[in-house]
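Quick note —
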Amino acid sequence: MPVPQSPAEWHRLAAELHYATGHFIHGEHVATRGGRFTVVNPATAEPLCEVAAGDATDIDAAVASGRRAFREGTWRRMAPRDRLEVLNRLAALIEKHTARFTLLDSLCMGKPVRDMVSVDVPQSALTFRYFAELSDKVEGTVTATAVDAFHYTLREPLGVVGCITPWNYPLMQIAWKIAPALAAGNSVVLKPAEQAPLSALLLAELFIEAGAPPGVLNVINGYGADAGAPLALHNDVAKISFTGSTVTGKKMLVYAGQSNMKRVSLECGGKSPQIFLDDLEDMDRAVTYAINGIFGVMGEVCSAGSRLLVDKRIAQEFTARFIERGQHAYVAGDPLDPETNMGPLVTKKQHERVLGYIAAGRAEGAKLEFGGDVPDRPGYYVNPALFTNVDNRMTIAQEEIFGPVAALIEVDGLQDALRIANDTIYGLAGSVWTSNLRSAHAAVRGLEAGTTYVNCFDHGDPTSPFLGHKQSGQGGDKCLEGLLSYTQTKSAWIHLGS
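Predicted structure written out below.
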């Protein structure tokens, strides 16, 4: 399926698109035995399709399939270079089906097709290729022992891994989690977000087409309470990897303790600060990054740079440039139009939530410089908003909005900026803009965040870990460390004496 170049072509393909809506267990699409739930197209507020609503029984079947595949060893005992070839073939199939993946995620959660084609799909393919190349790079150690002994360690896959992924980057977040788990030799049971479940089913189908054995990757759709919780509580699941809200992330830790003390990795909420010091080199570039850092992907990004901490000596000019350019930078439109850079929010509930935060900002005394209203079109759209005169104690400065709402806070130098930046329960990402090398290093050390950017924001590649500090999570995705988190170390002591 070629990638369309016009809105008409995208809409034609969308009308012709066929997709699975059941579960995927042991290499096959499986019809639901229970109920179904409705996926709504947020750009139209109209139903898109009905998808199987999984429960504990479905989770049991998927875990049993993964456990059987793991015990049979058809994947974990496969030569690492052979697993590499399967994952590389999957990456190629992702690229081949760019248009299908783009439509599935765009129709489910409203992401503009331009973002899917330029970022989500190619980055997902790259993730699988990166971890494919790491398949044979997992090494053990040989230690120095007495002459009558030989001791070594080796890393082994954990077993069945449960992955629970969010709706804001449906395909890409799935790739971040299952690629390292699979590369390490594990079986996976995936519970995608109920708002955007369709790309997961296509990916599982293509995994089999790429040459993977049945049972290694299973997909169960459903709500968190009905399918996610049973997965996290399952005694045959060795690890849960979760991305989502901090509230639900805390539940994952409880579920692990209530069941088999399974390993847990969490990537949760954020309230990321972007610090702009008065010695920054290029204000236009900094303002551009500030705008994109909060308004991109409709602000539905865990690490979105939602707090703009601007030195008071440049605040007036910075604010003026942000207003001049920011209020026109992202314009709501049809996600299937390649020119659109601003889609709808994912659901009616999220739409109401974001509007509620905008109302709270105004009620608490912040100044709404632009936006925050609803454009005259169907769907769950909100125009990007900028608040100034913000105090860090305000609701819009403390709570994760997950929408295109920027809060500008004036600061007095780096130390004041760091104090305010760290005054939050979150610690996912942060940035500093400065031409002073000493200030840059001080900010890197001073920011309580898993990732700190200097004179940029949201840069990275598969080699750079994505992880949270404080209540933004534990563990992380991407990089070699991410793959090793899906393994366990075994110690072998061989006595050589008589």
